[in-house]
Amino acid sequence: MNNIFNRIKSFASQHPDKLAIAIVDNDDRVEVNYKSLVLDVELCAAQLSRSGILPGEVVAVVFPNGYDFVVAVLAVLSVGARLLPLNPGFREDEINFCLESSAVRAVFYPEDLGIVSTYVKEKSIIGFSGIAFPVSENDEMPSESDSGGLYMFSSGSTGKSKRISRSQQDILCEYEMLAQTVSLTGDEVFFCTIPLYHAHGFGNAMMSSLLSGSSLIISVTEFNARKVAGLLEEYAVTIFPVVPFILKIIAMTRFKSMPELDALRLVVSAGAPLEQSTCEKLLDNFNLSVSQLYGSTETGAMTINLSKEKNEFMSVGKPLNGIDIQIRNEDGGVLSADQEGELWIKSPAMTKGYDNYPELTDECFVDGWFFAGDLGRLDKYGKVFIIGRKKLLIIVAANKVDPLEVEGVIRKFVGVDDVAVVGEKHPVYGEIVKAYVVSECEDKKRLEEELRSFVSRGLAEYKLPAKFEFIAEIPRSPLGKVLRKYL
Model pTM? Predict the structure, then answer.
């Protein structure tokens, strides 16, 4: 049976006492072995079944990183429901859009997350404010199902997040391709500081760890480079999925004594471009080579660079076993080595399209190929290099921001006549969000303060403009298209 939890339970029956999950919160530690993890998931799954959740129905999980998130996710997949992991830092409009458009039947959420609690009551759907359920003698473990799978929302160029759907079989297929490519074993120790509700954390940290029968260390403290380095050493971490922002902070940090990181065989960076200088500092200071991974919400992991050569750091590597990548021109013609064009991907693990967006699906998915919207080239050895983006996305510390979504919120504010949002380079975050605003309001200082307050109520923190600039006119083409290159 292609059920994710069934795979994990099978491993647990053979290695019940092995460490599955460790939650680190400053000096507090909670360590859970595979036997206990399976029991907790089964109790949670029983509660879902008792509440009437059926295979294929949608259950959202809005927990932050932690043990509750892992248990709820596995329980939802166990009963064959459709999992919708969401960022608990989303604002009310963002959360409501995702829940409403997905016809969610039930939600797991922290007790103090009022916006979800309100939604649950208003919509009369099932709400679970935690995973601690009492044991009943009449409880029967629900039958496992290989239906259902994963819903995730992907940023793009529509002004609204687009929902994609992937089956449990897709998730398992992605894991198998990655595991074969990087030679995963059950002896790995993964360390996670990145969001588990994000495709990188979900697939390359949580799923890769648990499906391989490895141990997953989750740090839920505010990021501190020295503490992270200490934990990498303490737990003899072998695989560290991370984003460039975190690596840059580690590379910039001064250490009184350098930690011993000899066990760390794979540092996997994804979510945003990685700077050559960061790679060089990590190599010089820690003797660590960083492997850039290229992936997307639509496809999961696609390529990884396993080369240790200093002059190859900027490549995102070769496609995973089973994935095809081509570089094509505007007319769809296949380009030869070292010619630049758009990346087209064919993967057995990717989604088949965007839910409820048939026209956009037709634009981005043709004959089994997905147009990634990224520009790049393939060298003669088959290594992929990303050179830019065809789409408008802004990447802030590995978080993708759709400028059209930000513009849509700003336009709702009375006194704004026009707006254009762009990404501006930043030495630490990679990019920050900058908004150019046209307004006849004379008190621009007051307007900016009110705008910041207004926008912060409608968008997650990483989407908020770090800068506002007031200009007389937004540059546009004769057809009205914003000419962002002139901003």
Answer: 0.87
